[in-house]
Structures are given as structure tokens and as C-alpha cells.
Amino acid sequence: MTLFDFSDYGALLGLVTNSLIAGALLGIVGGLVGFFVMARDLPFAVHGISELSFAGAAGALLLGADVVAGSVVGSVVAALLIGLLGARARERNSVIGVLMPFGLGLGILFLALYPGRSANRFGLLTGQVVSVDGPQVLVLIAVSLVVLVTLLLVWRPLLFASVDEDVAIARGVPTRGLSMLFMVLLALTVSVAVQTVGALLVLALLVTPAAAALRVASGPLAVSLLSMLFATVAVVGGILIALGSAIPISPFVTTISFLIYAVCRIVGSGRASRVRSAA
Amino acid sequence: MTPVLELEGARLAFGGRTLWQDLDLAVEPGEFVAVLGPNGSGKTTLLKAVLGIQRLSAGSLRVLGRPPARGDRRIGYIPQQRLLDSSTPVRGADLVGFGVDGGRFGPPFRRRADRERIGRLVDEVGAGAFAGRAAWRLSGGEQQRLRVGQAVAAEPALLLCDEPLISLDLANQAAVSELIDRRRREHGTAVLFVTHDVNPVLEHVDRVVYLVDGRVRIGAPEEVLTSPVLSELYRTHVDVVRVHDRIVVVGAGHPADVHVETAP
């Protein structure tokens, strides 16, 4: 078996235009949502939501329902539970720790019962390039746009509430409502990301790019733009490499994402030591 | 003249426990009032009541003649210094920015007037040199200077301070309390200052509100911070000792740290 074969690359590229569009949009939304995931200290919640998103998608597959819809239902339920039961970080982590294995177990059960092709099963966990066809791309684009526009409209109060909750409450910012709203936006983003990179690797899109950006930039504008750029490079780059390969897309996305993070850490620590020696 | 803050017969109780009662207080514009008392005496809860986050159990509370309301722009709030972790994606100046337009919904494009305002506030609190640095890299003193700029951004009539000097060194305690005091002198802003140690702000304080186990004493520092008055409040023998220009409260059977501060 050859792992890489780029001989029909041009023809393949035409087939995955939809995936590339969806991937680029996913990078932009994922990078932006990841910015707030880091600001609100929610990386673990992303993992928990993605496992329940996987359970929802697997359940939909089993029932013959729409996989994207199932994934959305799973992740929104998880996000609302985490938001409602875990207002404080410690509580939140235990709620997630309880939900996560349950979601994963449920998903595995549904897949075990599913009589169809095993490629479909594996795809939900580890992602696949050509998993999104025409109408699904439209759903992905619509969901992404809703998340993007909503985030921009609540940007300032959400950032205020994320960074400086006590003062935001004193200032009358509806922190509780914003927190629940963000959990829903996060859930929508996770369920979109699961379609491409798979449930196990959503963190590579929603956490790693923002964490990398934080290493080399400090203002909200710079960090969020870099985070979007890094996430987009990881998804689009992952799709382009995976095209000529028999391997699923996710290892490429996660590796690119990880390499960006590693480079940012080196650049960032070099900068910090220069600042220290100058001071 | 309408008092900036007016409490009449105010009482606050949680379940069966009364934090404070019979609290009558009128704070005039430009007045600096320190709220003192041991841990758990309800100092911070008093601030929450003024902010409209905590309802009184009885009595009335008015801010510039109106009942308290969440998000009142006439109130500024300075919290204690917080440790920010390295995933905090804002710079020093953004903390001030939150005070200017942090609560505003809509596309996040900052108006030119707001940008200029942030610049002026940063200069006013002497933060120009470090306002561009990541907020989590700032020292406690630097962060608290920016907090003052954040709190006064909307030109409040009342400034609520919740232990803003805690964990700062003495030089920064002096610098930050001087910034707060300057605001009150130049703009007539009333200050309600919660602290466990009155010494860093003693020279600015007009009156103290002393809370102990539900009992309240209000008056000038030299009237309230005396052995007889505090002994009565604590219902045990308490010595108030003046060492140079500092006040030290030493209690029998009570932790002696109420106002004790190690000298530099």
C-alpha cells in the first residue's frame, strides 16, 4: 500500500473544492472561538463537548437521521449542561470529567450497533477529507457564519466578562447570559469541526492555534487574528496533504497545528528572555 | 445637596446571621469613607449592596437619590489585584478600555473619541510606560494603577474600592491610594474604601465605618479608632496604639492583625 500518491492531484483538487471552502471557514471560526476558549479557560470543556457531539452524530447515523444535526444536538446538550452545572472552574471540570466518558461510551455503542460501512464509523472520530458533500457544506457555512456574526456582536462584553468577571458584573454586564451564549456558540463550532477533524482531535483547531497565538502576541486583535490564521493554515494545509494520501486528514491537521505551536513557543520564549535582559 | 450614597436603617442578613444592621450613612461628594472590620463582617457585601448585586434585608439605600441598579454608570469599582494567567489575551490599556466601552454590544470597532479617552486615562494614572504590555506580565502596582483608570473612565460620582491595595508593597500602596485621593480632590468623587488595614489611606480618610459582628460605629478616624470605642465594638478589651503615624489595633483574644502592618 502506498501512503502517498500525488499523480492525480489536479483532478482530486476539483473534487474537494467544497471541503476546502468548509475547511477555510472552519479555520476562521475555530480560531476565533479558540481565542475565547483560552480567555475563558475552557480547553477541557471543548474536549467534553466534542465527545458528546460524537455520540450525537453516531446516534444519528444509527437512526438514519442527519449526522450533522445529531452532532449539533449532542454538543449543544453537553455545552448547556456544562454551562449550567459548572459555573465555577472546579465544578466545571468535574462535570466535564463525568460527561466525557459517558458520551464516548454512548458513541461507541451506537457505532457498534450501526450496520453500515466502517469507514463512516471511523470518520466521526478521526475525521475525513471528503466527508462533506454539497448540502452539508451549506449547513457548515451557515452555522459558521451565525457563530462568527454573533461573536462579533458580543465581542466587547464577552471579552470583558471573560477576562475580568468581577468588574464586568459590577458594571452590569450580563455575564451569566453571555456565558451560556458562548457555550452554545462553542457547541455549534465543535459540531462543525467534528465533521472535518473528528471528535478526538477538535482540540487541535479550537485550542492549539489560540494557545500558539498567545505565545507571540498580547492584544486581543493580534491574538485573535493570528489564531484564525494558524487554524486556517492547519485545516487547509491538512486537506491539501491528505488528498494525496491514504491516511485520514486529522494527523496532518494536528501535526501542522502542533508545529505552529512549537515554533510560537520558541519565538515567544526568545522574545521574553530578550525583554528580561533589556529590563 | 443630595448625598452620593445614603443608607437608612440598612440591615443585611443571610439566613439567621446578621452581617450588619441599623446602618445609617450619608456620603457627601468628595468624601473619603473607609470601611473597616474583621473578616466576615460584611464589608464587601456592603459594596455589593451599593452595586445592586445584593439586596438589603431591611432599610433603604440610595445612590444619588435613586435605588441601586446593576450597571449604574455613576459608580466606579476597583477590585483587589488579581493574578492573571498567561492565557489572558489583553494588554494593560485594554483593562482601561473595558471601563470605557467594555459593556457595549455591537461590532467591536472602537470610536476615535473612545480611543483618545483611553489614552488620556492611561496618562492620568501614569501607566503610559507599561500600558502596551500583556496584562498578565504587569506587576500588582501597575495593574492597580490601570484599575483606577478603568474605574474612573465613566466619570463616576462614587468610587467603590474593595481592598485595592492588598498584596501591594508600601510604595505602590501609597501611589495607588494617592491616585484615588487625587480623583476625589479634583473631581469631587466620593470614595467608599473597604480595607482591613487603614494605615495606607489614613491621611486621606474623612470618616470610618467600623463593622464588627453586626454592630456599626461611624465617625472620624480619631473618634472611632480608640481603645474605648473599639473595645465596646469588639466586646472585649482592645488596645489602639499609635506608632509614629500608624495605627495598630491589638486585641485580647482577637487576632492582632486587624490593622497591624509590618514597617518597611
**C-alpha Rg of chain A (nearest Å):** 19 Å
Q: Give helix % range of chain B.
A: 25-40%
Q: Which architecture of chain A does the CATH hierarchy give at level 2?
A: Orthogonal Bundle
Beta fraction of the residues of chain A?
under 5%
Q: Do you know the CATH architecture of chain B? A: 3-Layer(aba) Sandwich
Number of strands of chain A: 0
Q: What structural class do helix, strand and pairing data of chain A support? A: mainly alpha
Q: Which sheet architecture does the biggest sheet of chain A show?
A: none
Strand content of chain B: 25-35%
Gap from first CA to last CA of chain B: 42 Å
Average pLDDT across residues of chain A? Answer: 87
CATH topology of chain B: Rossmann fold
Secondary structure: helix percent of chain A: over 70%
Structural description of this entry:
The complex is a heterodimer of chains A (279) and B (264). By secondary structure, chain A is mainly alpha-helical. Chain A has one domain (9-278): ABC transporter involved in vitamin B12 uptake, BtuC. In chain A, 82% of the residues lie in helices and 0% in strands. Chain A has 14 helices and no strands. Chain A has helices spanning 9-15, 17-39, 43-63, 67-85, 89-113, 118-126, 134-153, 155-163, 165-170, 175-197, 203-206, 208-216, 220-243, 250-278. In chain A, α2 packs across α12 (208-216). The longest helix of chain A is centred in the C-terminal third of the chain and has 29 residues, at 250-278. Chain A is globular, with a radius of gyration of 19 Å. Chain B is an alpha/beta fold and 264 residues long. Chain B has one domain (5-220): P-loop containing nucleotide triphosphate hydrolases (Rossmann fold). Chain B has seven helices and eleven strands. In chain B, α2 (92-101) crosses α3 (112-124), α2 (92-101) runs parallel beside α4 and α4 packs parallel to α5. The radius of gyration of chain B is 19 Å and the shape is globular. Chain B starts with a strand and ends in a 13-residue tail after the last strand. Residues 260-264 of chain B have low confidence and may be disordered. Chains A and B meet through α2, α8, α9 and α13 of A and α2 of B. Chain A: Belongs to the ABC-3 integral membrane protein family. Chain A: This is Metal ABC transporter permease. Chain A: It comes from Amnibacterium setariae.
